[in-house]
Write a structure and sequence with these properties.
Blueprint (H helix, E strand, L loop, with lengths): L2 H6 L14 E7 L4 H5 L3 H25 L8 E2 L7 E6 L1 H7 L5 E6 L7 H9 L1
Antiparallel strand pairs: 1-3, 1-4, 2-3
Length: 125
């Protein structure tokens, strides 16, 4: 495994741990057509979607290497079945990801920490 791929597979930092010059982004990926997926049973559909995300992640990691964007995009999360990936990137890296193969769109995650106690107290007053 390449050094770059190892770095991209390390545990992902929370928003509090990401330096200000970096942000977390959600990438929406291409997916198999509805016609392809409708012919599959639920288990096979799940496997097909996961394989698709795995392959697009591998392509994305190769593209990052080829474009020399390692410093701009230091982390890509593991794939999901929901045709999306999460990445840590600089604003410039995020702009570059919009042109990456297999990426349909990219947006900041805008994660917000929610305190259940604060919510609970707000309801009881």
């Amino acid at each position: 495994m390449k050094k770059h791929e190892q770095a991209h597979e390390s545990p992902q930092p929370s928003n509090e741990q990401i330096p200000q010059s970096l942000g977390r982004y959600m990438l929406v990926l291409e997916r198999p057509s509805s016609a392809e997926l409708s012919a599959l049973n639920r288990a096979d559909r799940y496997r097909a979607l996961f394989r698709n995300s795995e392959e697009l992640r591998r392509r994305l990691l190769r593209w990052i290497d080829e474009q020399h964007l390692d410093a701009e995009i230091p982390a890509i999360d593991e794939p999901t079945t929901f045709n999306m990936l999460f990445a840590v990137a600089t604003p410039r890296g995020a702009e570059c990801l919009e042109q990456a193969p297999g990426v349909i769109s990219i947006s900041p995650t805008g994660e917000v920490a929610v305190s259940l106690m604060a919510r609970k107290q707000g309801l009881s007053s």
